[in-house]
Every structure is written in structure tokens, then in C-alpha cells.
Design goal:
This protein is mainly α. The chain has two domains: 174 residues, no CATH class; 109 residues, no CATH class. Helix content is 76%, strand content 0%. The protein has twelve helices and no strands.
Length: 283
């Protein structure tokens, strides 16, 4: 495959990923970090300034729309804080800090700062006010996990777009998706979260364990998908075939319900079996 074709395919994948993200998550969670990263590169060209200004103004405009409830206001404040945190963490990254590691640190910083800000604004009952609003009572149980996954996805997309637009990007490109992995010790967090969730303990601890399980489940799901992509490439299966299979599974709910846990389990078992290393060894 020629570099030009690889670049075109990468651009299309990035566009499709961005479209899917905008449907699933607040667009500003991608746009604001992207604008911040581009400004941090000290833009010199019209394309850089235009992209940073256009994306930044659009993201800020969406954040300034009237909030319908406290939870929406909380998420918007978090978006601003996590965007700023990601830029700062990137600028001061030390050593071989990975994109996932920087995104996690930025998410933690933004989350803690948003909670502190909410407590200052609403008092000691800040989370109760957010949690028990009738409109969001059911959804808010999993808001931290959903927001964490959206943050990781948004910051990853923002980094990739900044790499394409900026003449002097702030760091190297992320590794190919098929190589996506993280520390094997994370599997112990799943065990701890499962114990906390099934054990009859304090309700707040069970809620935290549930959210941790959702986040880790999402990450291991992505790891499982990366393994499938790597195996498909090794056996000469076209990416289009994988996309068609995913679309069919999404259209038929039952295969999707079986596929997602299977992929997450594949990601977990990769901790010990290291499927991609075995593929390389055979090659």
C-alpha cells in the first residue's frame, strides 16, 4: 500500500470516527482540546489559525447555550477544565508518556476540579443536586463512566486532528490502532471493582465500582477490537469486511449483545495470552 493511499484511508477513518463521536458525545469535548492544542503549537499559517479559531469559537458557542439542568452545566464546566488540563499535561509531559496516559491524567484533573467547583457553587450537597434531578436521575448513575470514555475518545481524536493540521505538532503520532494496549496490571482493577460491586457495602462504593467496571470494560472492548483488526491484517482480511460485519451486528441486536462481551473478554485474556505477539512470532 502506498503512503498516499494510507494517508487517504487514515483521513477517512478519522472523519468517520469524528462523525461517530459527535453523535455520541458533546462535540466540544473534541473541539475545545483541539483548539487548545493548535494554539499551543504557536500557529503560523492561515490553515492553523483558521482551524483553531473556527473550532474554538464553535465549541465555545455550544458551551454557552442555555443549560437545561445542573448536570448539563456540570459537564460543560468539566469540558473546559479537561481541555485546559490536557494541553498543560501535554506541554509538560515527561519521558515516554503515552497519549492514553496523558488523557487519563487530564480527565482526572478535570474531574476533580469540576467536582470542587460544583461544591463551591452548590455547597456540600452538590452531587445530590446533580444526581437526584428527575430528568437525569437514572442516567446520572453512570455519568462518570460515560464521561470518562467520552473524554478519552475526544482527546484522542483531538490529538490526531492536531497532528494533521499543525505544521509543528506537540508530539509523535499515536501508535497504530491495531497495537492498542495498556498495562497488564489494570486487570486487577477489574477484580477489585467486581468485588466492590457484588459485595453488600456502602451504596456510594458500589456506584464507584460500577462506573470503574464500565470504564475498564470499554477500554478492554477497544483492546479486543484492536486484536481483531491485527488478526484481520495478518490473515489478509480487508478492513471493509470488518466494517460490514460491525454494521450487520449493530443492525441485529442479538449478535451485537453477544459480540461486545466477547470482544471485551478477548481484550482481558490478551493480558496473559498476548495474541498479537504470537502473531508476530509466527510471521
Amino acid at each position: 500500500m502506498t503512503p498516499g493511499r494510507q494517508g487517504r484511508e487514515g483521513r477517512w477513518r478519522l472523519l468517520l470516527g469524528t462523525a461517530a463521536f459527535v453523535v455520541w458525545a458533546p462535540p466540544s469535548l473534541l473541539g475545545l482540546p483541539l483548539a487548545g492544542l493548535l494554539l499551543a503549537t504557536r500557529p503560523r499559517t492561515t490553515a492553523e489559525w483558521g482551524t483553531a479559531g473556527g473550532v474554538g469559537l464553535l465549541s465555545a458557542g455550544l458551551l454557552l447555550l442555555p443549560a437545561t439542568d445542573l448536570l448539563t452545566g456540570f459537564v460543560r464546566a468539566y469540558t473546559v477544565l479537561v481541555a485546559a488540563a490536557f494541553v498543560v499535561v501535554t506541554l509538560f509531559a515527561v519521558g515516554e508518556a503515552t497519549l492514553l496516559g496523558r488523557a487519563i491524567r487530564a480527565g482526572l484533573i478535570g474531574g476533580v476540579a469540576a467536582v470542587v467547583l460544583a461544591r463551591v457553587q452548590l455547597g456540600g450537597s452538590a452531587w445530590d443536586a446533580l444526581h437526584w434531578e428527575p430528568v437525569v436521575r437514572f442516567v446520572s448513575d453512570r455519568v462518570p463512566a460515560t464521561l470518562a470514555l467520552q473524554t478519552l475518545a475526544g482527546l484522542t481524536l483531538a490529538w490526531q486532528w492536531h497532528r494533521r493540521v499543525a505544521r509543528h505538532p506537540l508530539g509523535p503520532p499515536p501508535a497504530p490502532f491495531r497495537d492498542f494496549r495498556f498495562g497488564d496490571h489494570w486487570v486487577w482493577a477489574i477484580i477489585v471493582a467486581l468485588v466492590g460491586w457484588i459485595t453488600p457495602v456502602v451504596a456510594g462504593l458500589k456506584l464507584a465500582a460500577l462506573n470503574l467496571l464500565v470504564v475498564l470494560g470499554g477500554l478492554y472492548l477497544v483492546r479486543g477490537i484492536a486484536i481483531v483488526v491485527a488478526c484481520a491484517a495478518a490473515f489478509g482480511i480487508a478492513p471493509a469486511a470488518l466494517v460490514i460485519g460491525a454494521v450487520v451486528a449493530a443492525a441485529l441486536a442479538l449478535p451485537l449483545l453477544l459480540l461486545l462481551p466477547g470482544l471485551a473478554t478477548l481484550g482481558i485474556t490478551d493480558t496473559w495470552l498476548e495474541f498479537r505477539r504470537r502473531l508476530k512470532a509466527r510471521a
